[in-house]
Fold:
Amino acid sequence: MLRGIHVPLVTPFDTSGEVALDAIEKLAHQVLDQGAKGLVALGTTGEVATLDPGERARVIEVCARVCAERGALLTVGVTGNDTRSTARALRELPSGVGAALVIVPYFLRPGERGVVAHFEALAEETPVPLVIYHIPYRTGQSVSAATLRRLGEHPRIAGVKYAAGGIDQDAVSLLGDLPDGFEVLGGDDAFISPLLALGAAGGILASAHLETRRFADLVAAWHDGDAVRARRLGHRLARLSAALFAEPNPTVIKGVLHAQGLIPTPDVRLPLVPAGAESVSQARLVAVHPGE
Ligand SMILES: O=C(O)C1=N[C@H](C(=O)O)C[C@H](O)C1
Structure:
């Protein structure tokens, strides 16, 4: 279900600051045309924290329509750090949503037993399969391979978006012994190639707004065992990701998409501030001349 590249779409804004739904629709078609297997709505990249409930609903609606037309998976980010309200948000997901990306409870640091209790409770209530979003440098909560493996045994938990900030011992251990039906998706753009080499099923990667086809080829190359091709692509795309993450995500990506005429403005909502012109032009340069 999760194999391949899933693009966590940016939320473009028009010149009056409203969500540009038509631009989302175009971007969605474009990345699916270029080989993405699915979309992620309301991720960090989509600036979910700054969207009001009506905006969130409209973003999901557009993405669900495109995914239904294209036979693609729509995953929706469900953000919350208490179990009751997260369960409610899951129950209220509209039809057309295929999976929910649920972050490890952040800030509270409930410990690994709390993390297990949280996801096991959500798994009992969710109408769609869950993907755990493990990103300790944002949540403040570590989760070991053993805990992820235990959660992965639950039939309603389909995978983990793994974003530990690098390839750590837990990534190696988890990918060496995955529960049946549980998959790992890379969530640190710069480390996607080595994670795929270890056996990841794909990735949820903001960088794949650009060069979507090459990211899809990277996944296919590792899955086909073509290490020579995979390494070459991996190094090229890592350079692109480094340039796109030179400032807080998704500011540089929005700058590049705007410069390419794909979104009406590069605007982000506070507390994010737009990327500097230098970062945007450097990322555009790397996209064209990756230094092969
Ligand atoms: O929104 C997402 O999903 C992603 N967010 C990460 C982040 O901003 O840290 C980056 C990743 O590419 C996908």
